[in-house]
Amino acid sequence: MLVLAYITHSKSGVANATLYYRIDNQEVVRLKMNRTGNLYFTEIPPKRYNSAVTYVVRAVTRLETKACSKEYTYYIVGDFHPLVITYIEWVPANPTTTKPL
Fold it and tell me: How many Å apart are CA 84 and CA 68, to the nearest integer?
């Protein structure tokens, strides 16, 4: 899941931002956030079905002032719609036995 955060500080500027997340109340994982202007972003890797992912974003200014977002949680649920292949075509339509497909 892509996480985006718009972070600014009018005095000294933002030094860095970090995303902290955990899966089902397990050990916390720390991810450094990349930056484009004032937009910080990182991606939480895919997780197994029926998991709860909880995360916060923490930022530090150049003067060492710290801030933390509220805590967010999302849930990974199963895909209950089966994959269906409805049409297959091959070219050439009438292959010869001497040429590989």
Answer: 44
Q: Which residues of 5-14 are buried (b: 16+ CB within 10 A; e: fewer)?
A: bebebeeeeb
Q: Which helix (H) or strand (E) holds 22?
A: strand 14-23
Listed by start position, the domains of the chain span 2-76
- Which residues are within 8 A (CB) of 92 and not within 5 positions of it... i.e. 6 or more apart? none
pLDDT of residue 99: 63
Q: CA-CA-CA-CA torsion for 89, 92, 95, 99, nearest 10 degrees?
A: -120
User: 43: which strand partners?
Assistant: 2
- Over the chain (101 residues), what is each successive 10-residue block's mean pLDDT? 93 94 95 96 91 96 94 86 82 69 56
For 2-76, which CATH class?
Answer: mainly beta
Q: How far is CA 98 from the centre of its chain?
A: 48
Q: Which of 20, 22, 65 is nearest to 42 (CA)?
A: 20
